[in-house]
Amino acid sequence: MDARGRSDTDGTVEGDKQTKEPTRLNGSQQQQQQHPAIKRHAPGGAFVFVANFSSQTTVTVLVAMVRSLSQWTKTLSFPARISPNRNSKDCNVNVLPITPPPPSVVASATPSRNNKSISCTTSSSSTMSSSSSPSSSSSSSPTPPPNVPITEISQIIYPDPESEKAIMGSLVFCIHHKQGCKWSDELRKLKAHLNTCKHDAIQCPNKCGSQIPRVMMTDHLAFTCILRRAICEFCNVEFTGLGLEEHAGTCTAEPIYCESKCGTRVLRGRMSIHRAKDCAKRLRRCPHCSREFSADTMAAHGATCPRSPVPCPQRCDVGPFARADLEAHLRDECKALTVPCTFKEAGCRFKGPRHLLEAHLEANTSAHLSLMVALSGRQGQQINMLKSAMAKLSINYTGTLLWKISDWSVKMQEARTKDGLELVSPPFYTSQYGYKLQASMFLNGNGPGEGTHVSVYIKVLPGEYDALLKWPFSHSVTFTLFEQGTLGSGGCGGGQGGVAESFVPDPTWENFQRPSTEPDALGFGFPRFVSHELLARRPFVRDDTVFLRVKVDPSKIVAV
């Protein structure tokens, strides 16, 4: 029939003047309708259905089906194609991921003999669809029925079966594809897939209130559900999951490491007893010195405690003593201690109890005196040997002697008052196994330079290797008196200036023959080496010190 045409049963035309005014149906009136008879009209892209209801059951089923379908499509993800069986060019349905604008419903009630008919028009736009169409038999149109807004998405009806088939056949992804589900199929199969999708969240069977994906449900029931039943592995008492977490840090049967860090694992319930009696790190007070130590170091402390009582090792009648006082007791008081004679270093071999030592000393006074005299002689020999060794260590073996003469003014004054006062340098060698030489100086002069000049000489001393050397001594010798604080070309190390004199010994000179052991052997040198006037005018003396260098030419030294 037409949207406003005649009825198929009684020929009555809706919208006739004799018909009643269209009324707005409320919820109770809609529930009283009879079985629906749906017919399709699509003028202008809209569709109209007329339903005759005879029972409430059919309406409930229809509404539930539409509501369920709308819930499925809320979070769908559609691929590019609408349907695997239809081309997008052949389909007029545009599937968008947004909720369509709410349509409006116009409902009218027409009385009939045994039933009521409801006319509902739905449009894709926000405007109301007219419930009447042009009629050739009526000259005037009735008042349009009032709008009834659709308040639920379940009231939206598919335009036609073809559109419904296209939508339900569209390829979609699972709503959990971002979580890793790879399912993709027709929309009509989505609900069945969600009933088995491992990424879909379901209610925890323990009714803890958590929504858990199926893939994580096993772990949730085993480890994280607060209402799961779990048994403490230490005390074997059953708890809920939440109760087990609270119990975990307080279980008295759980073995834990000692808080004092002794390394022992003890049941939590026995920790206080362990720390008081058994812990190796518990503090204990030494009964002798009142100091505190850990139990594992107390034994070591007892072996060294200065106030710990110990018996006399000589088993005398006195004691015990504090360990700190034992040494004094053995040194001064213990009568049972075996002691040596006080002249042990001199050679006395007596050793006996302390109470016999005094009698031994009185009886052997003369013997002890003889031992001390002999000891004194041995010590004198040792002193001389040490002096000789030290002298050897101080001897120069480079062939160059730098002689430092301190207290120059005192020695000069002494030389002027004493005739023939000679200063002698430390001996030195021309090489490790060479000639042994010694320089001497007369501050007030000698011979032609007496009273006006400083005289310097060198003499050959008896050496350890004279038998291997070539005689007479024939190497060049140079004396240099340094100016202090001035730069020159001939100084020590190429730095200081001064006065220098040198000579080459004549092989016929007796002074350079192989020396004898006589201490007054003659030397050779310069009686007028430097005048007192020049010595005062130039900076040869500084800080009351004079430096004289004696150098033997190393290029002419031949040991063998």
From TrEMBL:
Listed Pfam families: TRAF-mep_MATH (PF21355), zf-TRAF (PF02176)
Q: Which InterPro entries match?
A: MATH/TRAF_dom, TRAF-like, TRAF1-6_MATH_dom, Znf_RING/FYVE/PHD, Znf_TRAF
One GO process term, biological-process aspect? regulation of canonical NF-kappaB signal transduction
* Biased composition regions of type Basic and acidic residues, renumbered to the chain: 1-23
This protein's species is: Anopheles darlingi (Mosquito)
Task: Identify one Gene Ontology CC term for this UniProt entry.
Answer: cytoplasm
Q: What is the lineage of its organism?
A: Eukaryota, Metazoa, Ecdysozoa, Arthropoda, Hexapoda
Which ranges carry the TRAF-type domain?
192-245, 247-298, 300-358
ZnF TRAF-type: positions: 192-245, 247-298, 300-358
UniProt keywords, alphabetically: Cytoplasm, Metal-binding, Receptor, Repeat, Zinc, Zinc-finger
What's the name of the protein? TNF receptor-associated factor 4
Q: Where is this region: Disordered?
A: 1-38, 104-151
Q: State where composition is biased (Polar residues).
A: 25-35
Entries under SMART domains matching the protein: MATH
Q: Record keywords: Transmembrane included?
A: no
Q: What is an example of a GO molecular function annotated in this UniProt entry? A: tumor necrosis factor receptor binding
The UniProt regions of compositional bias labelled Low complexity, in chain numbering, are 105-141
Cell compartments where the protein resides:
Cytoplasm
Q: Does the keyword Metal-binding apply?
A: yes
